[in-house]
Design a protein that fits this description.
It is built from five helices and five strands, in the order E-H-E-E-H-E-H-E-H-H. The chain is of the alpha/beta class. The protein has a five-stranded parallel β-sheet with strand order 2-1-3-4-5. Strand 1, helix 1 and strand 2 form a beta-alpha-beta unit. Helix 1 packs across helix 4. InterPro entries: D-isomer_2_OHA_DH_cat_dom, D-LDH-like.
């Protein structure tokens, strides 16, 4: 899966690269996701959100127009994402709910990559699912 990660800290980058182990084609950008950097997502399927970048409905529509179908946040929180707009755009959204210690960067990056793995296999991400779409698998878990 082709993905892009904006606003990533050096320690997150290191653990993301190790967790990914060349499975997914991830472009890593230190800049925040803004209207000026949005175009870097062209041709990607997934967006990895770090450090609580705010994703408004306008940003989500811009991402969808560029081809983004999936949004994975590296936190358990989703209040920085407009989930309604993502649902209306038909996007799938996931977080990292299984990490008890949010300071555990390694575990968070492993969950982000597991979410990408599931989506690449055409499967639901289960308990990590935050999307507003009708995902029967996620509702049962």
């Amino acid at each position: 899966m082709k993905a892009i990660a904006y606003n990533i800290k050096p320690d997150e980058k290191e653990w993301l690269v190790l967790a990914n182990y060349k499975k997914h084609d991830i472009t890593i950008i230190a800049n925040s996701l803004t209207a000026d950097t949005l175009s870097f997502a062209t041709g990607k399927e997934a967006l990895l959100v770090f450090n609580n970048d705010e994703l408004s409905s306008n940003m989500i529509l811009g991402l969808r127009a560029l081809g983004i179908k999936y949004i994975a946040t590296s936190s358990s929180q989703t209040d920085h994402l407009d989930l309604t707009a993502a649902g209306l755009a038909g996007m799938k959204v996931a977080n990292v709910p299984l990490v008890a210690d949010q300071a555990d960067t390694k575990a968070r990056m492993e969950q982000v990559v597991k979410n990408l793995d599931q989506w690449a296999a055409g499967k639901c991400v289960g308990k990590a699912c935050c999307c507003q779409n009708d995902c029967a698998t996620a509702k049962k878990m």
